[in-house]
Design brief:
By secondary structure, the chain is an alpha/beta fold. It folds into four domains: about 1-90, no CATH class; about 205-295 and about 310-535, Rossmann fold; about 565-800, Rossmann fold (3-Layer(aba) Sandwich), CATH 3.40.50.12470; about 815-945, 3-Layer(aba) Sandwich (Rossmann fold), CATH 3.40.50. It contains 32 helices and 25 strands. Strands 3-9-10-8-7-4-6-5-11 form a nine-stranded mixed sheet. Strands 15-12-16-17-19-18-23 form a seven-stranded mixed sheet, with helices on both faces. This is 2-oxoglutarate dehydrogenase E1 component. Belongs to the alpha-ketoglutarate dehydrogenase family. Keywords: Oxidoreductase, Thiamine pyrophosphate.
Length: about 950
């Protein structure tokens, strides 16, 4: 039958027109999900239109509706109507009622969560939701017993309105409030609807399963009460009020293991952390009690950290076999652990060759105020589906205490109704659940995990609960929240309520619940591990081996030179472009220059040296991961690790051809984030010791947006937690007159953080130095973070080049002595410097023919090479009476204040030290080019004087 003929048939049997667009749209959505659920004539009609308009799954509703209205107008231009029920169709009034029912169903899906019973304290009145009133849609009490088509509702095709509303109330207004209609993917929405509406949000739990939930609740309450009575007044950041988190985590681990997950990385702040360590991770209670008594944990060196920041790992038996669960170390900067966990998971996925995240699961536990308030949460969500940062979907659990850090009201902690609104930026479904209903929590947990495993996307469980004590156990929250804490004092604990429920159901005997409590306390008294399913002696073939790096010395010698023929062979690989691949003329010129460099016909530039460092490391069996906002090309157009076809825009990465595994070299142009991306790369580096993991700032100045990662993890993780990392940071630095935000990488901040050999800070001034430094970072039996102040203008400076022999011989020099042929005995002054200013000094001295001034470069500022510099100052240049430290940065910035004590240690008895550079300043650099050049000229003159 033709499309026109179908329409004529529909016009004679239906009274639907533009006013009933919602009915048509709902029928169309039902047709897309399951054609058999719509009447034959509608099925034929939608099929004919989708055939005419294209692929039905990709057609939005509006063209279908428009086509219906277009076909449904008669010659007079008015909506088509049939003559009445006598011809077999619905009356106009009945059609309106049917459309109203479908709108009501849609309203519950959109707004039912606002009327849901999700607050165990029932603190605040629910907002009015007029859309959920049948009268809002033109339905009256007389319609309640009338049967209507249920449309796309997962229910019988026809139901009385009363039963439709009852089902909708049960699903959308019970202890679970579901937000998912913001998702644009129809398949995801229909999947969620089926899981919610097809079950009534009621878990089918047997007696044994219910007892298991009670046991987990008993454990959650038991450890808190034990610590509260035994260590009175000590901070523990109790979980009480959010006890359901423990059965939730137990279910997640067991459910994930059943689906094949082999590793889970868990990130959480301090609230409830001790509870998780004891009842989920299987930490020995005796070890925790020793920490409460002030003892340092066995085997932990360094400064240590408070007990509720410490990490832990264990192996747990699941229905799918052993699962390794790691709780990440975390500072008090709450959400900053989020990207670190994601990076760690990405590294574990690489080791397991698991690109979809089927075997590795990130789990993040948030606080409500922090989830809404801290920007790193949004940045981490934006990583979730980005190339290079994908981890197969994260399960987020918000322990929603309905109160801020200390005593804040929700209206002071966010502008949104829910704390979870930020998750909608990636269209994550959000399930708000009443924390005092353990069975609803169990249902939500299974639903969230299944969604993640089905669609490989993030999902959020908003566990709405309360905090029985204050921010810490010495706090008195009733002073500022009297009404909330009056309710909390009268609120029976969830364990007690659930136990009473099981007794009423005949699942427990009258004394059985108290026997559980007594048994748990006795286990704690006996210092027994109380977590269930904990395994010992499990072999993990995918674990990273960090033991070989413990105790290594920073000055351990290593051979970084590479044979000339090897370099030429590698360049031959890098030159081989795919057939038909056409380079941009400027890039083609750079590639041609590199061919001449490896042949010895041109001096080596920075791009060539860096590329060769990566290529040789790949050939040596290491991997390279480089991320940053312009890392493929390089901010300053020097790297070109990713080539772009000028004909069709396709990409080619020559370094991926060096090995048989293309993913051995990964370069990613990251999103415009410093904090989350640097945190991710740090997490990756902590689990991948044999990968040169590099984060590159677009300009070094911008790292202050990631200062928390630097302070809390990169600089201090080894001292606090014993965590090693070989993360390398490229920070473009140099004063070229580009103003305050494009000059300084804030060298002084890194040097201030340097102590106990915690990291390395280098300022290489030649391509060869850069080459040897990168190779040294991997070839040494030494894994510490490496901070590199990389060049900008030096990338093309006529003096900042190297010869091929500098790569095929030599090594990284921590100190570079005078390069001109000067008589050391005739030198009365030695100028020390680091970085680009060296070339300004060198050119000025040559211009002035000053043969009495030697210039020495310090290429590694930490660990400071005192022995090498002492040999030069106190021995080689013993005749010099003046030592000058020259820097571009203002006096209160740069290396001067953090380094001058090293300089004094290296000087001879008759030598004095002087500073030459910019005066102290509030801003890193001036904003006017002329003023910049005047300052630069003055500091060079002062140094040479």
């Amino acid at each position: 039958m033709t499309d026109r003929g179908l329409f004529e048939q529909l016009r004679n049997t239906s009274h639907l027109h533009g006013a009933n667009a919602a009915f048509i749209e709902d029928l169309y959505e039902t047709y897309l999900a399951d054609p058999s659920r719509v009447d034959p004539e509608w099925r034929a009609y939608f099929h004919s239109l989708t055939q005419e308009l294209g692929d039905g799954e990709d057609i939005p509703h509006s063209p279908i509706r428009a086509r219906f209205e277009q076909h449904g107008r008669d010659n007079g231009g008015t909506p088509a109507r049939a003559s009445g029920a006598a011809q077999g169709g619905l009356s106009a009034e009945a059609a309106e009622k049917q459309a109203a029912v479908l709108r009501l169903i849609n309203s519950y899906r959109f707004r039912g969560h606002q009327a849901a019973d999700i607050d165990p304290l029932d603190l605040r009145p629910k907002p009015p939701v007029p859309d959920l009133d049948p009268a809002f849609h033109g339905l009256s009490p007389a319609d309640l017993d009338q049967s209507f088509n249920t449309g796309s509702l997962f229910a019988p095709t026809q139901m009385p309105l009363r039963e439709i509303i009852a089902q909708l109330e049960e699903v959308y207004c019970g202890p679970i409030g579901s937000e998912y209609m913001h998702i644009t993917d129809t398949a995801q929405k229909r999947w969620i609807q089926e899981r919610l509406e097809g079950t009534g949000c009621r878990p089918r739990l047997g007696a044994a399963r219910k007892k298991e939930i009670l046991e987990r609740l008993t454990a959650a309450e038991g450890i808190e009460k034990y610590l509260h009575s035994k260590y009175v007044g000590q901070k523990r950041f109790s979980l009480e009020g959010g006890d359901a988190l423990i059965p939730l985590l137990h279910d997640l681990i067991q459910g994930a293991g059943r689906e094949g997950v082999k590793e889970m990385v868990l990130g959480m702040a301090h609230r409830g952390r001790l509870n998780v360590l004891i009842n989920i991770m299987g930490k020995d209670p005796g070890d925790l009690f020793a920490e409460f008594e002030g003892h340092q944990p066995d085997g932990l060196q360094g400064s240590g950290d408070v007990k509720y920041h410490m990490g832990f790992s264990s192996d747990i038996q699941t229905p799918g076999g052993p699962m390794h669960v790691a709780l990440a170390f975390n500072p008090s900067h709450l959400e900053i652990v989020n990207p670190v966990v994601e990076g760690s998971c990405r590294g574990r996925m690489r080791r397991r060759r698991d690109p979809q995240g089927k075997q590795v699961l990130p789990l993040l536990i948030h606080g409500d105020a922090a989830f809404a308030g801290q920007g790193v949460v949004m940045e981490t969500f934006q990583l979730s589906q980005a190339r290079g940062f994908y981890t197969g979907g994260t399960v987020h659990v918000v322990v929603n205490n309905q109160i801020g850090f200390t005593t804040s009201h929700p209206q002071d902690t966010r502008s949104s109704h829910y704390c979870t609104e930020v998750a909608k930026i990636v269209q994550a479904p959000i399930f708000h659940v009443n924390g005092d209903d353990p069975e609803a929590v169990a249902f939500t947990t299974a639903l969230a995990l299944d969604y993640r495993n089905t669609f490989r996307r993030d999902v959020v469980i908003d566990l709405i609960c309360y905090r029985r004590h204050g921010h810490n156990e010495a706090d008195e929250p009733a002073a500022t929240q009297p009404m909330m804490y009056q309710k909390i004092r009268n609120q029976p604990p969830v364990r007690q309520r659930y136990a009473e429920r099981l007794v009423q159901e005949g699942i427990l005997g009258p004394r059985e619940a108290e026997e559980m409590v007594a048994a748990y306390r006795e286990a704690l008294e006996n210092r027994e591990v109380v977590a269930s399913n904990i395994l010992t002696g499990v072999r993990n073939d995918y674990a990273a081996n960090w033991a070989r790096f413990v105790g290594a010395e920073w000055n351990e010698p290593v051979e970084t030179a590479v044979d000339k023929e090897r370099l030429r062979g590698l360049q031959g690989i890098l030159d081989a472009l795919p057939d038909g691949f056409e380079l941009n003329p400027r890039v083609a010129s750079i590639m041609e220059s590199r061919r001449k460099m490896v042949a010895g016909a041109l001096p080596l530039d920075w791009g060539f040296a860096e590329t060769m460092a990566y290529a040789t490391l790949l050939q040596d069996g290491y991997r390279v991961r480089l991320t940053g906002q312009d890392s493929g090309r390089g901010t300053f157009f020097h790297r070109h690790a990713v080539l772009h076809n000028a004909r069709d825009g396709s990409n080619f990465v020559p370094l991926q051809d060096v090995t048989t595994e293309p993913q051995d070299f990964v370069v990613i142009d990251s999103l415009l984030s410093e904090e989350a991306v640097l945190g991710f790369e740090y997490g990756y580096a902590t689990t991948e010791p044999d990968t040169l993991t590099i984060w590159e700032a677009q300009f070094g100045d911008f790292t202050n947006g990631a200062q928390v990662v630097i302070d809390q993890f990169i600089a201090a993780a080894e001292a606090k937690w014993g965590r090693l990392s070989g993360l390398t940071m490229f920070l473009p630095h140099g004063y070229e007159g580009q103003g305050p935000e494009h000059s300084s990488a804030r060298l002084e901040r890194y040097l201030q953080l340097c102590a106990e050999y915690n990291m390395q800070v280098c300022v290489p001034t030649t391509p060869a130095q850069f080459f040897h430094m990168l190779r040294r970072q991997m070839l040494r039996r030494y894994r510490k973070p490496l901070v590199v102040l990389t060049p900008k203008s030096l990338l093309r400076h006529k003096l900042s080049t190297s010869g091929l022999d500098d790569l095929t011989g030599g090594h990284f020099h921590n100190i570079i002595d005078e390069v001109d042929d000067l008589d050391p005995a005739a030198c009365r002054r030695v100028v020390l410097c680091a970085g680009k200013v060296y070339y300004d000094l060198l050119e000025a001295r040559r211009r002035e023919s000053r043969n009495d001034v030697a210039i020495i470069r310090v290429e590694q500022l930490y660990p400071f090479p005192e022995r090498a510099l002492r040999i030069l100052l106190a021995e080689r240049y013993a005749a010099a009476t003046e030592v000058v430290w020259c820097q571009e940065e203002p006096k209160n910035q740069g290396a001067w204040y953090s380094t001058n004590h090293h300089l004094y240690n290296c000087m001879g008895p008759d030598q004095r030290l002087r500073y030459a550079g910019r005066a102290a300043a509030a801003s890193p650099a001036v904003g006017y080019p002329k003023r910049h050049h005047d300052q630069q000229r003055a500091l060079v003159e002062d140094a040479l004087a």
